[in-house]
Amino acid sequence: MSKWNSPTEWQRLCDGSGCPICARGQPLNNIAQLDSSWLTMSEAAPMPGYVCLVSRVHAVVLHDLTSSQAESFMRDAHKVSSALSAVTGAVKLNYEIHGNTLPHLHMHYFPRYVGDPFEGHAIEPARVSQRVYSAGQFSKLRDRLLLELGASAVRR
Ligand SMILES: [Zn+2]
Question: Which pLDDT score is estimated for 125?
Fold first, then answer.
């Protein structure tokens, strides 16, 4: 059952008063802070190089942002796209914005590879049950991405 079935809970998630990202002050697995967003990355990923760009302003949909905020968010998205493509060597990137369970604006990046389990189709993260990184691969890729972005790792 989705949170949409609880109007009060859904409203609190949408207006930010019950948003776990806003309550925490940042998303989980935050690796970098960009102009208008945080970048998250975790070893628990559906595809090597999977990252998520999270707006630093609470918004449910793009048009909740001002034009200037949206432009800044998309500049961050553009920058991450370029850096992620360079460090992963992916054939292409898939981007997804949903917010169905956590309505705080975030954009998923799925690097796609020749021979990946979903070649020719959209990624289905629920169908990924095994680890996608070999030992040491995650931290190496994360560090290369941060270097490519010119970003410093977020201290935790
Ligand atoms: Zn929020």
Answer: 80
